[in-house]
Amino acid sequence: MNNKLISQKNSALLISSVVIVMSFGVWVSVEAQVQKQPETTAAPTLKKAGRLELQNSGKPFKPEKLEESNKPIKKGTRGTIGRDDRLPMLSNNYPWSTVGRIVGESNSQTYTCTGTLIDEDIVLTNAHCVVDPKTGQVASRVAFLPNVVDGQYKDRAYAVQYLAGTHFQDKNSEANDWAVIKIDRPLGRKYGYLGWKSLPAKTLIRNEKRFFFVGYSGDYPQAETEKFWGLTAGQGWTAGFQAGCSIVDEQSNILLHDCDTAGGSSGGPIIASIDGEPYIVALNNAEIVDRRSGKGLINLAVNISFLDSLFGKK
């Protein structure tokens, strides 16, 4: 979905009766695609944690042997296609290596989201990627597949513990739609992890077109994009990357942004380069849709400040 900067007039629609909020998790049957590696043991049971420990203090980490690139496309490939601002994330280099596809299972249904390593065994995503917003039921299992490119990935980890900002029984569920999950393998040692910076909304809004976004959207890559880049795995199996998007406003403690997103990109990081290093500054989670036309008006994001209090960062 290509949501552009909204005017003040459109912004007023956020509190009108003609808009609805839609989460970005995609509930689909993808189990046949997920089983790319033989299962040697049963997936661990996902449990709620009283507290999770973080090894770092919110700073990014690049493994020594992992190459780094500021471009999501492999060297020598070509540029943007058509009007969609997204490019396929084809790079295995850092920091793109830190973002992965989440596949969850609840009530025998599978669904997909996006997650990002923020420590060697901690993944950041949305609460609705772990908890069913309609029932409040926790997923029976959640898998994290790092750096999936055209359906290919080398590792898989399972969530063993989680902390969520909401179980969707409160009025502020959108603003608290975050979750951190502890996985059963220290994949951050291999793929690296991103840091985070809690910045005032005014600072985020002032830095127009300075952010980039990565997410495994269920509408991407589209047919022409697949053909151009020679991709074959289908939609949702290659992340979309967009540079130059903006945080456009803040309302009721919810950030509004214009990054190109769609179902499956829930939990995707909105990233800023700060002093030459990648930091997550917001967490994509939902969209505002016009009830009458069905068209998206603007996308929502969670302020990342909760990580400061959650992990005791000062």
Key phrases:
314 residues; mainly beta; Thrombin, subunit H; ten-stranded mixed beta sheet; six-stranded antiparallel beta barrel; 6 helices
How would you summarize this macromolecular structure in one to three sentences?
This protein has helices at residues 8-11, 31-34, 188-191, 201-206, 223-229, 306-310; strands spanning 19-23, 26-27, 47-48, 87-88, 99-106, 109-119, 122-125, 141-146, 157-164, 179-183, 195-196, 211-215, 240-245, 247-251, 254-257, 269-274, 277-290, 296-303. The protein is mostly beta strands. Strand 5 and strand 6 (109-119) form a beta hairpin.
Protein described:
- Keywords: Hydrolase, Membrane, Signal, Transmembrane, Transmembrane helix.
- Its EC number is 3.4.21.19.
- It is an enzyme of class 3 (hydrolase).
- By secondary structure, the protein is mainly beta.
- The chain has a single domain, classed as Thrombin, subunit H.
- Helices cover 10% and strands 33% of the residues.
- It is built from 6 helices and 18 strands.
- It is globular, with a radius of gyration of 18 Å.
List the helices and strands and how they pair.
Elements: H1 8-11, E1 19-23, E2 26-27, H2 31-34, E3 47-48, E4 87-88, E5 99-106, E6 109-119, E7 122-125, E8 141-146, E9 157-164, E10 179-183, H3 188-191, E11 195-196, H4 201-206, E12 211-215, H5 223-229, E13 240-245, E14 247-251, E15 254-257, E16 269-274, E17 277-290, E18 296-303, H6 306-310
Parallel strand pairs: 3-9, 11-17
Antiparallel strand pairs: 1-17, 2-6, 4-13, 5-6, 5-8, 6-7, 7-10, 8-9, 9-10, 12-13, 12-16, 14-15, 15-18, 16-17, 17-18
